[in-house]
Design a protein that fits this description.
Largest sheet: 4 strands, antiparallel
Strand content: 5-15%
CATH class: Alpha Beta
CATH topology: Muramoyl-pentapeptide Carboxypeptidase, domain 2
Distance between the termini: 44 Å
CATH architecture: 2-Layer Sandwich
Shape: globular
Number of domains: 1
Number of helices: 6
Radius of gyration: 16 Å
Helix content: 40-55%
Length: 186
């Protein structure tokens, strides 16, 4: 059964990738490092409606509630949903059983032509924190560690408890690679 995604009914709207890239560029130019926080906050604010749209889309497909889906089915449906919403394909996995990973080789927020020197899918990190936090029924933090905007082949987001993500962030700040930092999580 093919089920479309009704953006209007879910208080969502289509925003083109170039428009989001222009918004990010303008914010970074005018607000400097604070732009990341602004974009994350905006992404987080949209997570509730996005998750509600996902829940309704699953119901329309006859799949039931996301929290009751088998992991493999959830991963497949979440990837399909984000692709249909224009964000790109998404592979969900885990790293060392310490954090979840979200990988995409075509993520919509990334702009490979931007020439950035660091990950910058800030809107997505906020959106994912709220979206997956609702699924987990727990506060989650998201940290992008690879980004197509910075020349990587994929965007990779780490998802975990805030204290775990802080520990990884601190280790990376000391020059430790994210894979090694995840391995050092208590």
């Amino acid at each position: 059964m093919a089920t479309s995604l009704d953006l209007t009914k879910n208080e969502m709207l289509a925003l083109t990738r170039p428009a989001l890239a222009a918004l990010r560029t303008a914010l970074m130019r005018d607000a400097g490092p604070a732009a990341a926080s602004y974009l994350q906050e905006a992404g987080y604010a949209g997570g509730e409606r996005l998750f509600s749209a996902f829940r309704q889309w699953l119901r329309d497909k006859g799949d039931g509630a996301p929290e009751h889906l088998d992991v493999e089915i959830f991963e497949r449906r979440a990837s399909e949903f984000f692709r249909m919403a224009g964000w790109g394909t998404l592979r969900i996995g885990s790293l060392r059983d310490a954090v979840a990973t979200l990988d995409s080789e075509d993520w919509g927020e990334a702009d490979p032509k931007s020439g950035m020197d660091h990950p910058c899918c800030h809107f997505s990190t906020g959106m994912f924190a709220d979206f997956f936090g609702r699924l987990a029924e727990s506060e989650l933090a998201v940290f992008e560690v690879e980004c197509r905007s910075a020349g990587a082949k994929r965007c990779r987001f780490l998802v975990g408890a805030p204290e775990v993500m802080q520990q990884i962030y601190d280790e990376m700040g000391r020059g430790v690679g994210y894979d090694e930092a995840v391995g050092e999580v208590d």
